[in-house]
Design brief:
363 residues; alpha/beta; Rossmann fold; six-stranded parallel beta sheet; 12 strands; globular; disordered N terminus
């Protein structure tokens, strides 16, 4: 039986890998290297008490291996909490491939990665994430059956993720504004990749006033042409007049600098690890009266979509399950208010409570 903690085999205070692994409660980490294909990857399995660890593979040009390790450790723990709070019988894991997704992809690289995934014998199930497409997962699936998000099955999880974020945003709006209506609400969406773009579709359809930014100029112009939404430069998104900030790119955009600039009263978006320093910035948000919808709870639609494939459930089931994110966020924010503690802390506790309950059954 897995546990929430890992006993260090060496003095963890002296080991730059085991120390964070032990501190965050990871079960194991697999470092993958293949000179022939150029593959450099890290797979982190955080917790398997509730079931096999499911989490996507991210391809990113990290500055160094330590940055990649830090990211995969945080992301995999987030997946444990995301799956737990969503009432899924899955544990949490994540993988990162160090490389440029625009120039370094090949069938050989992904097939070699699939071979590494297969060595974990089903304790880790992979899927797509930033920089990875369903077609890339097809190459991975040639070497392992422990992969989801394939074309013709559950496929691209972005629409379900975006729908869940939209529902969670409405729940957060209800707590802050007294109504879950987004009509006339000014929403700043940072990042309009697949999830962000689908989220904008929902917001515009309801009548929100949307401002967008992204590093992809072509994507910005396409979405502007489609909906007539306002466009600003990447660093200016924090300064626009907004009611709701929706971070939908990479993490850590809620930090000392941005908190001094953001004039929102709700933060609800699709990005992982939105708080640069969880305890510090989560507390600051509460003190400022800003409602924060915890990232791993609000963006769970993607993993719900993948779970539907694992269990052979329908897309309609996934959409109905993602709609429940409204209730999850509502419960988190209600408990946060009642107990006087930051919403991120409530979400962590709720996830940990479910894991501990299952672990205590010793089955």
């Amino acid at each position: 039986m897995s546990d929430l903690t890992v006993s260090p085999l060496v003095d963890s205070s002296l080991n730059p890998i085991l120390q964070p692994m032990h501190a965050m409660g990871h079960e194991h980490i697999l470092f993958c290297n293949d000179k022939a294909t150029g593959l450099k990857a890290i797979i982190a399995v955080h917790n398997t008490v509730l079931g096999p660890a499911l989490g996507g593979t991210r391809m990113w040009m990290y500055q160094n291996e330590q940055e990649a390790l830090t990211d995969v450790l945080r992301l995999s723990r987030g997946m444990t909490y995301k799956n737990a709070i969503s009432q899924l019988n899955l544990g949490g894991g994540k993988a990162v491939i160090i490389g440029d997704a625009k120039s370094m992809k090949s069938e050989a690289l992904f097939r070699r990665f699939g071979q590494f995934v297969n060595t974990l014998a089903g304790s880790y199930i992979t899927a797509e994430d930033v920089g990875i497409s369903p077609d890339d997962m097809v190459h991975v699936s040639k070497e392992t059956k422990h992969v989801v998000g394939l074309p013709g099955k559950s496929g691209d999880p972005s629409p379900v993720t975006a729908f869940g974020v939209y529902m969670g945003m409405k729940a957060a709006a209800k707590h802050q504004f007294g109504s879950d209506s987004l009509v006339g609400k000014k929403v700043a969406v940072q990042g309009i990749g697949h999830v962000g773009a689908y989220l904008v579709d929902h917001l515009v359809a309801e009548g929100a006033i949307v401002t967008i930014t992204d590093i992809n100029e072509a994507a910005l112009q396409a979405l502007h042409a489609k909906h007539g939404v306002a466009v600003v430069a990447a660093d200016k998104i924090y300064d626009v007049d907004m009611d709701i900030y929706a971070p939908c790119a990479l993490g850590a955009t809620v930090n000392d600098d941005t908190l001094a600039r953001l004039n929102c009263s709700v933060i609800a978006g699709a990005a992982n690890n939105q708080l640069k320093e969880e305890s510090k910035h989560g507390r600051l948000l509460m003190e400022k009266g800003i409602i924060y919808a915890p990232d791993f709870a609000i963006n769970a639609g993607g993993v719900i979509n993948c779970f539907s494939e694992v269990e052979g459930l329908s897309l309609e089931w996934a959409k109905q399950k993602a709609e429940e994110i409204y209730t999850t966020i509502d419960r988190i924010l209600m408990r946060s208010q009642q107990e006087g503690i930051p919403s991120y802390q409530v979400a962590n506790q709720m996830a940990e409570e479910r894991i501990q309950t299952k672990g205590s059954l010793n089955i």
